[in-house]
Amino acid sequence: MRKSCLFIVSVIILTLFSCNSNDQSVRFEGNLSHCPYSKIYLYKVSPEGDFLIDSSEIKNGMFTLKDKVNKDDISIRYPGFYKIFFSETNHLLTIANKGEKLHFIAQADSLVKTYSVTGGKDALLMYQLDKRLKQFIDSVETLYQTYEQNQYNDSLKSVIELKYNQLVSNHQIYLFNFIQKNKGSLSTLSAFYQSFNRRIFIPEEENIALLQNILSEIKKRYPMNENIPFIEKRIEMYSK
Q1: What backbone torsions phi and psi does residue 27 show, to the nearest 5 degrees?
Q2: How far is Cα 103 from Cα 200, in angstroms, rounded to an integer?
């Protein structure tokens, strides 16, 4: 009788383990400080738009969000872009693949400027892009403050303009290198289209050959990904 019970328990454990191992859901967990919010939202970002797929109460600064994977469209939707969202001015964009569990640490009142992430290679690449853009923005804001304090000093204004142009050039070089080093990752799309205010770092119409290369590399890795038709349409628009 005892052996029979042990056998049944073993079967149950194995069954549960098997079910969990087949779970392809994408999970997003976080620890937040400086949190004035009670709820956080998860959007799936696609060429067709942003779609709310989950929300979570924030308890003691912690949250859990989930995208339940439909096995019928795995090859199309994953990996994909996601938006962890408080408001239009306070959210972050990341990338996740089926079966991944991403963990975020951030200040809730300034998500994109303060977050760090573990659990996914593409999510880490997006974090690197955000971190580098923040460094650029901080440097530009310092220059702007200097300009405001010396706006009647023409010689200094020329120096500030030169420094600004150098900052832009350095950031462009970083983005080009990032794309080269991370071929096939969807994060290269974010690098290509990254901007700050009205500053476009990689003008699309001047870099169609690069966009074609990005498309080629993503197709090799994810031939049916939902973002491929979007890139193809952008390339086609400039080839007419």
Answers
A1: -115, 145
A2: 30
Q: What is the mean pLDDT of the chain?
A: 91
Q: Are 179 and 188 in contact (CB under 8 A)?
A: yes
Determine the residue type at 123: A
Residue 240 is encoded by which pair of tokens? 């007419």
**Distance from C-alpha of 163 to C-alpha of 144, rounded to nearest angstrom:** 11
Per the confidence metrics, is the pTM higher than 0.85?
yes
Q: Looking at residue 22, what is its pLDDT?
A: 67
Buried b (16+ CB within 10 A) or exposed e, 19-28: eeeeebebbb
How many C-alpha atoms does 10 have within 13 Å on its Cβ side?
Answer: 6
Q: Are 119 and 102 in contact (CB under 8 A)?
A: yes
pLDDT for 239: 81
Give the span between the Cα atoms of 200 and 196, in whole angstroms: 7
- How high is the pLDDT of residue 16? 43
Picking from 94, 85, 141, 148, the residue whose alpha carbon sits closest to that of residue 116 is 94
